[in-house]
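User: I'm preparing a small set of examples for a lab meeting where we compare how different chains pack in three dimensions. I only have the primary sequence for this one, and I'd like the structure in token form so I can line it up with the others. Please keep the answer compact; I'll paste it straight into my notes.
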Amino acid sequence: MAAFKKFKQEDHYTTEYVAHKTFTASGNQHDSYGIETYHGVSGSGDWLPSGSDVNLAGTNYEHHTRLVYNSIHHLYYSGYDSLGLPTTSSNEMSGSAYDNYLQSSYTANQRRAQSEFTVISVPQNLFGCYIRPGSIRLSPDLAGSGSNYVFTGSDATGNYASESFAEEVDTMYGASEQLGDGDYIENEEEYINEGEAEFVKAAPDEWKTTVVDDGNGNLILSASSPQRIVGNVVYSHGLLVISNPVVGGYYQNYFSGSLTWQSSHPIYTYNYHCEVKEDEFNFTQHPSAIANGTSGSLINDVTGSFFNPYFTTVGLYNDASELIAVAKMAQPIPVSDNNETTVLVKLDM
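Assistant: Understood. Below is the structure token output for the 349-residue chain.
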């Protein structure tokens, strides 16, 4: 048996908080999680479909590299010129600059498109409403076999050939002008050794190649000094865009390491104040209060003036009198006949 009371408008309200969950995907987990990597290459003139710009042909991830580049550039880089500066018109920022899903407008050169994009896409069911800023860590696999990859021309041992892997050292890591040896986190000749017909890339230490986000939408080399922006992250779309061809080429063709991020899911809490006044719910509704063999007469134990009932459960019903939620007390609660009692029920959705 139970007694019912209808909520008033002021008896319920909704609050919200954001819950974060950490994910780490490495190796073949990228496929099982649905994390996809796309390669974009710039081009000139009208685009016509051809096999020359198809990447990962014959797989579920087949894509045209120029279409990828044009799409990413239009959505996220169209408001910036080749130096990473906002395009201007009559001393005002052009309208396209507002359509690039910026996290912050305070970081200089934050959107600098180069000749290629490496795009890592995280499915929405794994990042929720957005990737939590400052939670991204993209790391190489240092425990795998084969510590060195030796290239001769465009051929390679294994499936790691990339014609765009190395570029001139004075333009590496998004620098807008020529850099000296001291500008690198490590002397560039210790990082990439180039020869006339071949170059050898030694397996880097993790701190040399790990990419993190700065919380403002930029992907940076974690230990670079000065800080080197190598791409961008669009938190609300779950996209990591590596715009530097050298770093992008490494993660596109060699990546078997790990990607760590935190999802952001809003949790809505429905709060219900179940008010019991001193003259309400002060008698038991339990069937055991009815004397056996009678037509509804109460047993002597509940007819005395000192009898006080307890409640153990609060049920929430909709307007159709359908039970939609049940709240159980940790222990029976006495109903006071001198003071009002309020039970706060919270439902997280």
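A couple of notes for your slides: Residues 90-97, 143-207 have pLDDT under 50 and may be disordered. The chain is about 10% helix and 35% strand.

User: Perfect, thanks.
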